[in-house]
């Protein structure tokens, strides 16, 4: 197993260090490679000998910088696809986002994978993730490469450095005192282990051959806990739990 990331070296928190990942790195079963996916040569080198690639890299969704988002989510994804094709990678699973079908205005209730991309997205992250996702699906079948996209919604769980910390920061800044609307808007959150399981399921589906592989290849799937909750109820439980 190989981990490729932008940082010069991998840094694990204590829980990760003492867990499965830390042990796997120490035993040599996992190798870390510093690579910038915006550099095609680095990506090609990182993928040499790989049979499966999980493309999870993306800037923080809160950074509304088109140049940055495009360089990673679009140009970087093109490099990932090219490197997979050049290296004869068999399966490519892309971590997308449900925001690829959200225009920032109209709520989505019981949405399905048949939903089209909107004509305009709410921010540069969503727009470029949609473009990257489309590239991944279009690449299905290139030099034997099978692709699949998953769209996990609002990931939380151990090691979360984005969702819960940002909600807590907003509450501390007094931004959770006011509710616009009736406060009954539903939201989907996804536990991190379910997201990891979805990646594994997508890879296994592509590797299975036959009808299952044919149905999964070149497709995108929403991933949630299947337990939509009122956003402000989630916030209340979160803040109460944290004291």
TrEMBL record:
Q: Taxonomically, which superkingdom?
A: Eukaryota
Q: Name one GO molecular function term.
A: oxidoreductase activity, acting on the CH-OH group of donors, NAD or NADP as acceptor
Q: Which residues form the 3-beta hydroxysteroid dehydrogenase/isomerase domain?
A: 12-243
Q: Which InterPro entries match?
A: 3Beta_OHSteriod_DH/Estase, NAD(P)-bd_dom_sf, NAD(P)_dehydrat-like
Q: Which UniProt keywords apply?
A: NADP, Oxidoreductase
Q: Could you tell me which Gene3D superfamilies the record lists for this protein?
A: NAD(P)-binding Rossmann-like Domain
What is any one GO biological process for this UniProt entry? Answer: steroid biosynthetic process
Protein name per the record: 3beta-hydroxysteroid-dehydrogenase/decarboxylase isoform 2
Q: Which organism is it from?
A: Noccaea caerulescens (Alpine penny-cress)
């Amino acid at each position: 197993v190989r981990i490729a990331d932008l940082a010069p070296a991998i840094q694990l928190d204590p829980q990760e260090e003492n867990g499965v990942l830390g042990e796997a790195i120490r035993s040599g079963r996992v190798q870390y490679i510093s690579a910038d996916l915006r550099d095609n040569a680095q990506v090609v080198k990182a993928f040499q000998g790989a049979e499966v690639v999980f493309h999870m890299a993306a800037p923080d969704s809160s950074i509304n910088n088109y140049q940055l988002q495009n360089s990673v989510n679009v140009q970087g994804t093109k490099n990932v696809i090219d490197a997979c094709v050049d290296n004869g990678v068999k399966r490519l699973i892309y971590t997308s986002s449900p925001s690829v079908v959200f225009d920032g205005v109209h709520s989505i209730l019981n949405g399905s994978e048949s939903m089209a991309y909107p004509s305009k997205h709410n921010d540069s992250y969503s727009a470029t993730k949609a473009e990257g996702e489309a590239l991944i699906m279009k690449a299905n079948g290139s030099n034997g490469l099978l692709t699949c996209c998953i769209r996990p919604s609002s990931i939380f769980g151990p090691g979360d450095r984005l969702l819960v910390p940002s909600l807590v920061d907003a509450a501390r800044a007094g931004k959770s005192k006011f509710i616009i609307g009736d406060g009954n808007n539903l939201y989907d959150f996804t536990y991190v282990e379910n997201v990891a399981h979805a990646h594994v399921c997508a890879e296994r589906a592509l590797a299975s051959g036959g009808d299952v592989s044919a149905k999964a290849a070149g497709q995108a799937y929403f991933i949630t806990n299947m337990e939509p909750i009122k956003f402000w109820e989630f916030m209340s439980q979160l803040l109460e739990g944290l004291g």
